C-alpha cells in the first residue's frame, strides 16, 4: 500500500465539486486501500479523495481505537436526514495542519452511500461520527471547515497557513 501526498489549502482542488464514482473496479479498491493507509499514517479519523488529488465522491473514516481498526468506506454519499439539533465542536483537517476551530453542524445525520463493491448502504450517526461524515461530505463539494466559520477566524487560519508555507520554503525539512 502506498502513502499518498495530502494536499494543503489553499489549493483549487480542495475547492472543486467532485464527480460521482462510476467504476467499482480494481483501481478504486487500490485507491481506497492507499487512502486508508494514508489516513492511519497521518494520523486522522477521515480522509476524502480530493485531499489526495482525486476529484471523485468518496472518503474513508475510522473512529476506532488504534488497536481495533474499524474502517468505513463511503462512496457517492447523500445526506438523507439531518437532525434539527445542532452542536458546535472543534475540528481539524489534514489539509489545514495544526489549525483548529469550532464548527456548527447537525448533531445527527443519516446518509445513503455505496460501499467498495457498489452495494447500497445507509448509516445513521451522531456525535463525532456525524461530525466527521459532514466534514468529509463537505470536502466532496469543495467545502473546507474554514468555509463554515467567521471570516475573521478564516482569515487568521489562512494567514497562518501562508506563514507556515513561507517558513517551509525558507528552510525545507
Ligand atoms: O482527523 C480529522 N479529525 C477531525 C476532527 C473533528 C472533525 C473532523 C475531523 S476530520 C479530520 C481529518 C480530515 O481532514 N478529514 O477530511
Ligand atoms: Ni478534512
Report on this model:
This protein has one domain (12-168): Alpha-Beta Complex (Peptide Deformylase), CATH 3.90.45.10. A 5-stranded antiparallel beta sheet has the order 1-2-3-6-7, with helices on both faces. A two-stranded antiparallel sheet has the order 4-5. It has 173 residues and is α+β, with helices and mostly antiparallel strands. The longest helix is centred in the C-terminal third of the chain and has 20 residues, at 151-170. The chain has helices at residues 26-41, 127-140, 151-170; strands at residues 46-48, 58-61, 72-82, 86-91, 101-106, 108-114, 120-126. The mean pLDDT is 97. The two termini are 24 Å apart. Bound molecules: ligand GNR and nickel (II) ion. The site of ligand GNR has 16 residues, from strand 1 and helix 2.
CATH class: Alpha Beta
Radius of gyration: 16 Å
Mean pLDDT: 97
Profile the largest sheet. Answer: 5 strands, antiparallel
| Ligand roster | ligand GNR, nickel (II) ion
CATH architecture: Alpha-Beta Complex
Distance between the termini: 24 Å
Q: Percent of residues in beta strands?
A: 25-35%
Q: What is the share of helical residues? A: 25-40%
Runs in which pLDDT lies below 50 for 5 or more consecutive residues are: none
CATH topology: Peptide Deformylase
Let me know the CATH homologous superfamily. Peptide deformylase
Oligomeric state of the chains?
single chain
**Any idea what the shape is?**
globular
Order of helices and strands: HEEEEEEEHH
Helix-and-strand structural type: alpha+beta
Amino acid at each position: 500500500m502506498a502513502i499518498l501526498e495530502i494536499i494543503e489549502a489553499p489549493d483549487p482542488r480542495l475547492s472543486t465539486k467532485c464527480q460521482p464514482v462510476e467504476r467499482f473496479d480494481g483501481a478504486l479498491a487500490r485507491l481506497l486501500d492507499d487512502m486508508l493507509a494514508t489516513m492511519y499514517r497521518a494520523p486522522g479519523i477521515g480522509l476524502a479523495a480530493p485531499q489526495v488529488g482525486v476529484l471523485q465522491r468518496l472518503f474513508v473514516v475510522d473512529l476506532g481505537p488504534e488497536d481495533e481498526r474499524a474502517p468505513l468506506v463511503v462512496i457517492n454519499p447523500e445526506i438523507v436526514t439531518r437532525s434539527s439539533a445542532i452542536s458546535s465542536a472543534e475540528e481539524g483537517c489534514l489539509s489545514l495542519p495544526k489549525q483548529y476551530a469550532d464548527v456548527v453542524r447537525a448533531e445527527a445525520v443519516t446518509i445513503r452511500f455505496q460501499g467498495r463493491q457498489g452495494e447500497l448502504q445507509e448509516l445513521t450517526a451522531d456525535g463525532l461520527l456525524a461530525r466527521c461524515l459532514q466534514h468529509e461530505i463537505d470536502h466532496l463539494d469543495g467545502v473546507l471547515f474554514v468555509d463554515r466559520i467567521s471570516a475573521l477566524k478564516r482569515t487568521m487560519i489562512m494567514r497562518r497557513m501562508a506563514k507556515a508555507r513561507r517558513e517551509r520554503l525558507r528552510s525545507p525539512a
